[in-house]
Amino acid sequence: MNEPPRARMRVERITSSKEWSITSIQVVYVPAGNLTDSAPTTSFAHLDATAVLSRGLVAKGIYPAVDPLDSMSTMLQPRIGGEEHYETAQSYYKELQDIIAIFGLEELSEDDRLTVARAQKIEHFLSQHFLIAEIFTGSPGKYVGLVETIRGRSSRASLLFGGNDFKSLCTDPNRIVWDSEVKEIILSTNSGQIRVLPNHAPIATAVDIGILRIRLNDQWVTMALMGGFARIGNNKITILIFHIHRSTFMFLLYDYNIFWAFLIISSLIPILAFLISGILAPISKGPEKLSSYESGIEPIGNAWLQFRTHYYMFALVFVVFDVETIFLYPWAISFDILGISVFIEALIFVLILIVGSVYACQKGALEWS
User: How does residue 82 score in pLDDT terms, banded at 50, 70 and 90?
Assistant: First the structure.
């Protein structure tokens, strides 16, 4: 590589001029990791920026192991690096400062433990897998640009302000169904739906049969609950449930238009059945074709009994009502458990009953003397 005139001399002097400057990286060994030692302190006075490598971060497996508190740069100013870059660095710096004097988690209060958890998140957020460090970390190297890193702070601002510290725990008698940090939760209770956000007032409430909606970042997770109990407090919600069903697809019924469609379809089915029965009716009627037996074998004696049509129609109406009670009402309450197939089965079941009754009436099987 061609060097500018007197470049090597300028590097040795570690200086720059108004005409041009050169970037030089100097490796300074700090005895025993003591940054207050006179030898490295003298060198730091001539450097525009320092990146301090920490043995503690290496022990944690965080790379690059740059200590964000001991490292500094004279270029980190709003007029040089930009306002957003400066504010991001300062906010991270103030948050990490709170963890300096903390030594043991066992002796900390809840607020201090929350501070430690946020600082640990920031430490990992500032890490990056280097391509040359793959043999040490075992993870493939990745490159994240400066602009993306700064803007990533905006999308993860909850790391600093505690937005991601809202934890949700859902468990049934057999297992833990959900244990993660969330943005908000919409829960069905006996008094109606409630929306739970971070820093919600402590309450304890019974959980009703209905839908549980959990919002992560930009994604909603929907579950069907079959009753239970919920406790909210200290930025945590614990839900104990009798039964839960989680699905990647869930249809929520917001109005009753589907029931109007069901009534219209149910009204069209008998009309269609009568039209089809006229087409399928025997052209040349005979005793065999008019018989209610379809096997072609003549009955011996009084092998079949005639009964009143009222009984059949009463049974038909009862079963149709029973289908609506058994299928449609639970289907509207918790659709993802029963699914669209149950609604189709209900329609098919009613269709078979109506077609069967029309067919029997056309053949005279329901007549009595």
Answer: confident
Please give the C-alpha separations between residue 316 and each of 258, 261, 292, 350, in angstroms, as whole numbers.
Answer: 22, 21, 19, 9
Whole-number Å distance between alpha carbons of 29 and 36? 12
Residue ranges of the chain assigned to CATH 1.10.1140.10: 23-160
Q: For the CA atoms of 28, 33, 39, 40, what is the dihedral angle to 10 degrees?
A: 50
Q: Judge: domain 166-246, CATH 3.10.129.10.
A: no
- CATH code at 23-160: 1.10.1140.10
**Are residues 229 and 204 in contact, defined by beta-carbon separation less than 8 angstroms?**
yes
Find the mean pLDDT for residues 345-354.
Answer: 72
Which DSSP letter does residue 156 get?
A: T
- Among candidate residues 221, 163, 217, 162, the one with its CA nearest the CA of residue 187: 221
- Cα angle at 227 between 222 and 228, to 5 degrees? 105
How many whole angstroms separate alpha carbon 94 and alpha carbon 72?
14
Place of tokens 């640009």: 145
Quick one: which of 160, 143, 145 has its CA closest to 87?
Answer: 160
Question: Residue type for 200, please?
Answer: H
> pLDDT tens digit string along 273-308?
677 766 766 666 666 555 554 444 444 455 455 555
Q: At what angle do helices 83-97 and 146-155 cross, to 10 degrees?
A: 60
Write out the two tokens for 38. 């006179």
Show the tokens assigned to 120: 């640990």
Q: Which residue matches tokens 């930025």?
A: 235
Residue 21's CB is within 10 A of a number of other CB atoms, namely: 11
Q: Specify the DSSP element, H or E, that contains 312.
A: helix 309-323
Q: Please, which residues have CB within 8 angstroms of residue 71's CB and are 6 or more apart in sequence?
A: 49, 50, 51, 52
